[in-house]
Amino acid sequence: MDTTQKTDKKYYAPFFNRYPITLTKGKGTRVWDSDGNKYIDALAGIAVNSVGHCHPKIVKAIKKQASELMHISNFYVSKPQANLAKKLVELSGLQRAFFSNSGAEANEAAIKIARKYGSKNGKSGTIVSFEGCFHGRTLATIATGKKKFQEGFEPVPEGFLQIPFNNIEAFKKIINKNIAGIIIEPVQGEGGINIADKKYLQELVLLCKKENIVVILDEVQCGMARTGKFFAFEHYDVKPDIITMAKALGGGFPIGATLCSEEIAKTINYGDHGTTFGGNPLACSAALATINTIEKDNIIEKTETLGKKTLNKLKEIAKKEDSIVDVRGLGLMMAIELNFSGRPIVERLIKKGILGNVTADKVLRLLPPLIIKEKELNYVVNILIQTIKEIKNEQHN
After folding, report:
1. Residue 214 shares a structural domain with residue 359
2. Does residue 218 have an active-site annotation?
3. How far apart are CA 229 and CA 239, in angstroms?
4. 335-356, pLDDT tens digit by residue?
5. I need a surface site. Which of 27, 116, 152, 212 has the fewest CB within 10 A?
6. pTM of the model
7. Catalytic status, residue 15
């Protein structure tokens, strides 16, 4: 344990079960620790560093903006914020944008907006979420999610209902006039890379449109080119009422976004919602530089191609490896589900120079930077499979 880890252990609130390494530098797909060890970051800060660590275009944009104007009150207008709103509206097909600081904040805003719209249409404000989801850790967003995230924080806010994912009949059973909105990830991240079935999501959205229920698509993790489209909903031929974004949007700088239709935006009054830091010029400049990099470097097309190749490779490996229960993914958002806990594998990978992740206990989650080269990703996959076999054999002996 180095000096920084000792300081962290003594003073930082024990919210995270950290791995014993102190990261000091990052560039592209690599990070370095305080001992000089180098790692391939196959987690990308949980899908945040999608264009790599310290991308020169983003660093340049942040430096330039920091020397001009970092923060102003949202009582005033800034050029980076206006330009980012325009860009995201053009990309999404929606008409309005609101900026915050994180995915949880983006989802909080979406829930409030959906309820406000619902109240104008005589609905009590129930928000429906789906099993396996994750929308944040605020009191309202934990109300949408797993019971384990609610334990000890009761009373949890009311007006939330959860039903099975990818089960249209479950939704038909609970449809009523009081449901203000649904919130759903096209690809569940924290839940284990669970992908919404295309026909299911299309029928779900159609039913919501008929009942005037607001459709919130949470693209905090699966957006920003992660699935081989700029927005994951583009795989489904559906039109949401609200989209939430964060994580990769700022290229490593904190920013969240809530996009909505003009019809829904009309129900919002001045002062209904707000933020002090959200949409500050520095964050918006970082986001604009990130989007520009994704577009100029053809990252969407590269992600789609490399994602398909890698997923096919993993599926072929899974046929011969009995410890792998399932392989699934879209773009460079992939999962290897095991029949045993994945944490020992992640710990072993660190020793081999790879930063990975396990979610839902048995699901190894691959979220590499979208700039990763095929050769480099193949290396990660080979080491990962080798480590799975090692741990399996050790547990059986």
Report:
1. no
2. yes
3. 15
4. 999 999 999 999 999 999 999 9
5. 152
6. 0.97
7. no
